[in-house]
Amino acid sequence: MASEDQKFCLLEVLDTFKLCLSENKEVYLEHYVAGWRGLVKFLNSLGAVFGFISKDAVSKIQILVNFLNGEHGSQYVTIQSMVKYELENKLVDQKKQGSHPESGCRTLLRLHRALRWLELFLERLRTSTEDSKTSFMCAEAYNESLAKYHTWMVRTAAGMAFHMLPGRPAFFEVMNVGPPEQVVAILGKALPLISEVYQITEDLYAQHNLLDLP
Ligand code: 1PZ
């Protein structure tokens, strides 16, 4: 059983993504990372078979947290300032892995790509009907987004894990916000926020040619 503070609540994640955007539309890394923490909590509450996924997410979150709390933490306040700082100081391996295999830019890019999966998956959930299959919606969203960045091994493991997802009613229950109509309503509020954070990051990375970082 997950302990109380481990318990996922969709509202909480919604709130963190709300906090992500500054007035001039920069993305606060602290809240971005907190949003991911919430999602990992959710994933963990779905069962141990998702452990290999949450483990990777957690290690990426940790890399970013270390930057935030590190000596140059003030450069990592927003994704925009991180990109600027790491590029100006040549802290990013641009073409192939070299002396900076765990830059903030490349690490965040992995989560950013996963955010696109999340967006696609949640949109499917939001518009799904009672008899829709979560595993199918999840696989579709994955194939349209993250799959192309993953090795055959990871794709296969992910495909197997998707089959272990609970059905739509149980899935909605784990979200912990009330009856299905309420879940759908909250998804409707959360999605535009997630999309906006995604798009701002995507544009920033495109502008700096960072979308294919090794
Ligand atoms: C609700 C069901 C959850 C399905 C999650 C769908 C995503 C499946 C991703 C499986 C990949 C996990 C194994 C690690 C892969 C890594 O190789 C890649 C690339 O990193 P690199 O090797 O270049 O360092 N990692 C990722 O792509 C990041 C994946 C993060 C996934 C977070 C999912 C959070 C789910 C939230 C659930 C609401």
UniProtKB/TrEMBL annotation:
Protein's recorded name? Ceramide-1-phosphate transfer protein
The similarity comment for this entry is: Belongs to the GLTP family.
A Gene Ontology biological process noted in the UniProt record is: negative regulation of interleukin-1 beta production
Q: Name one GO cellular component term.
A: endosome membrane
Q: Which organism is it from?
A: Monopterus albus
**PANTHER family tied to this protein:** CERAMIDE-1-PHOSPHATE TRANSFER PROTEIN, GLYCOLIPID TRANSFER PROTEIN-RELATED
Give the membrane topology, semicolon-separated if more than one: Peripheral membrane protein
- Glycolipid transfer protein domain residues are 28-176
Q: Which GO terms describe its molecular function?
A: ceramide 1-phosphate binding; ceramide 1-phosphate transfer activity
Q: Which reaction does it catalyse?
A: N-(hexadecanoyl)-sphing-4-enine-1-phosphate(in) = N-(hexadecanoyl)-sphing-4-enine-1-phosphate(out); N-(9Z-octadecenoyl)-sphing-4-enine-1-phosphate(in) = N-(9Z-octadecenoyl)-sphing-4-enine-1-phosphate(out)
Looking up InterPro entries in the UniProt record yields: GLTP_sf, Glycolipid_transfer_prot_dom
Q: Coiled coil located at which positions?
A: none
Q: Where in the cell is it found?
A: Cell membrane; Cytoplasm, Cytosol; Endosome membrane; Golgi apparatus, trans-Golgi network membrane
Q: Which Pfam families match?
A: GLTP (PF08718)
Question: Gene3D superfamilies in the record, alphabetically?
Answer: Glycolipid transfer protein (1.10.3520.10)
